[in-house]
Amino acid sequence: LLVFSSLALAQYEHLGYPPGYPDPEQEHYIAPQLSPDTPRIQLRLAGDKRKHNEGRVEVFYNNEWGTVCDDDFTIHAAQVVCRELGYLEAISWSPSSKYGKGQGPIWFDNLHCTGKEKTLALCPSNGIGVSDCKHSEDVGVVCSDKRIPGFKFVNTLPNHVENLDIQVEDVRIRAILSSYRKRIPVTEGYVEVKDGGKWKQICNTEWTQLDSRVICGMFGFPGERKYNARVYKMFARRRKPTYWDYAVNCTGNEAHLSSCKLGQASSLKLNGTCAGGLPVVVSCVPGRDFAPTSMTGFRKAFRQEQPLVRLRGGAIVGEGRVEVLKNGEWGTICDDSWSLLSATVVCRELGFGTAIEALSGGRLGQGMGPVHMNEVQCTGFEKSITECVFNKEALGCSHEEDAAVRCNVPSMGFQQSLRLSGGRNPYEGRVEVLVERNGSLVWGTVCSESWGTMEAMVVCRQLGLGFASNAFQETWYWPGEVSADNVVMSGVRCSGTEMSLSHCLHHGAHLSCAKGGGRNAAGVSCSETAPDLVLNPQVVEQTTYMEDRPMFMLQCAHEEDCLSSTANQVPANSYRRLLRFSSQIHNNGQSDFRPKAGRHSWVWHDCHRHYHSMEVFTLYDLFSLNGTKVAEGHKASFCLEDSECDEGIEKRYECANFGDQGITVGCWDTYRHDIDCQWVDITDIKPGDYIFQIVINPNYEVPESDYTNNILKCRCRYDGHRVWMYSCHNGKTSQLFVLVSHFNVDNQII
């Protein structure tokens, strides 16, 4: 029983422990005591990194950096490497120079570590410098994000400081002035490093603007600015700082302080003060979505649309698939040579800080349309990814190689004002919010009236739990905190892009909730992945035609309300003019698209002899050029199934014999032009130019990672005898009126 219970808990270990549960006892770091005959080495992670805590293992020994061979290397050796660098544990390791070939000697080969060694030099091996390997066998590791509590950097090579990377337990910006202590996010203050369990300031005698740029980027800010040094000088006189032993030497394009070089030992006076200097202060510039304004406070919704670059398919603010605009068409970036440097340029361009991770392999969903850029190489100082050097040719690149980013964003403290209570795991529960009532902060529930997918999406994003998988209007099966049963928020309406539930429209202090809280309060369940349905524009263009069909052949469609209202008064021998087309709906997300309704509640339509798992799956509308709707149609889910799939993916959903309905990731469902209701009734419209629009999953019944691509728009011309569909595109913003960007001869988008 003990074994099974430990295994059950282990699957949720990475989420931490809910409030009220004691955290596991943390180990305290003890600096290794090495015997005099142990070789003195220093380690670093180098190469083509996509996260700061991964890379090629490099060893500094005998005044020279070298590498480690992958022969006999195991996760135990990786554990020794990561812990020697101050990380809590190793996640994985990679052979065959995954992070690029190193240079210099191969210092270690045939390592046989137990994982308990205090330094890699204590692991049995062929002997330091004895190897028959090539640099094509250089080993790399991925370490955990968490640092060892109390970790203290011990420099065993004092004469080679300039060659070493910075290794500290933690970094922070501590607001000093009262005006900044009250602000969220904290944008100005002392830069402090945690070393040996104690927070210390850095002497500013060798500090540069490039160092400030890296620190600001780590905390989610795209830039830095000057500050009032006189005020901080007065403060430093009143309170004696505690200085770290070293300076910092960054080039300015690092994504994290751990990638910067260690500066010279600080020149401290006998009384511990900084010789000729003061504690380092940074003042950072927040992106526009995080900057307070005098009129509105923080901007309520995250502005996703950007001029030339945007992120799509991410669960939280600051992550997503990278898409760029070229010639009025959004396209993706191929992940060949995709790096932390290039990802950081994207993040800063969008008003975030440096990149946490450069993702490859379509990890945040696959895009549609062209691949605009390949083999992107940035210096890290470009204002836009479109200024970086890249290869225009994307031969061999598919959307399975779409590049994505995760960016550092400012800490807004939103997670502290929201929690899920009573769920079986940290991903689900009754929604409880922290609000001010009569001068004190109290927890309470959210009224479930009008509670839906968009509101649940905001909750999951605010808590960093990914996407919503369900929105619940009853939560009697999740007994939350009894003291939090009372409703403290009602009338919540979200657009889905807000960073916090408090940013959504709601009743404020004027609560109105007939259902009450407690068992009827709002709840959510979250998921790290979600589907993403996208229509294929080319299929709509290529399959459009017009058909005149007699009413007596449209009785089933008439029963399902697929004709215009004028069809109710016409004889059975009259004709209806139908605009017909095919829809090919791809699932480009990270999980299968499944109907919200369970099989037991599917509706049988006797006329068409099939089940509808979603009563309204798509809407078809025809608009005049001034936006007036002139004709409409709709399609229930005739049957959600996998018509075709990408190579290597098996079909999972089939409608035959009352089978499971859905669309598998990497597959598509084709609604052919010749099935009932796959049309718009245009009998009553006049010849002219129109805008045709398709919306899938229009009521947001099923959560998706990106709803903006659920809309397809086309230009439509009807001359009374024929019909044409052209300029079809995905997305809410009409590209018919977008300013066209283009590439210049220097290989850049302008």
Average pLDDT over all residues: 86
Strand content: 25-35%
The count of DSSP E runs of length 2 or more, i.e. the number of strands, is 40
N- and C-termini, Cα separation: 64 Å
Q: Radius of gyration over alpha carbons?
A: 30 Å
Estimate the global geometry from the Cα principal axes. Answer: globular
> What percentage of residues falls in helices of 4 or more residues?
10-25%
Q: What are the segments in which pLDDT stays under 50 over at least 5 consecutive residues?
A: 1-24, 294-300, 733-750
The helix/strand class is mainly beta
Q: Main sheet, how many strands, which sense, barrel?
A: 7 strands, mixed
Number of helices: 9
Structure description:
Helix content is 10%, strand content 28%. The protein is built from nine helices and 40 strands. The strands form nine sheets. Strands 14, 15, 16, 17, 18, 19 and 20 form a seven-stranded mixed β-sheet that branches. Strands 1, 2, 3, 4, 5 and 6 form a six-stranded mixed β-sheet that branches. A hairpin with a 4-residue loop joins strand 31 (603-605) and strand 32. It is globular. Residues 1-24, 294-300 and 733-750 have low confidence and may be disordered.
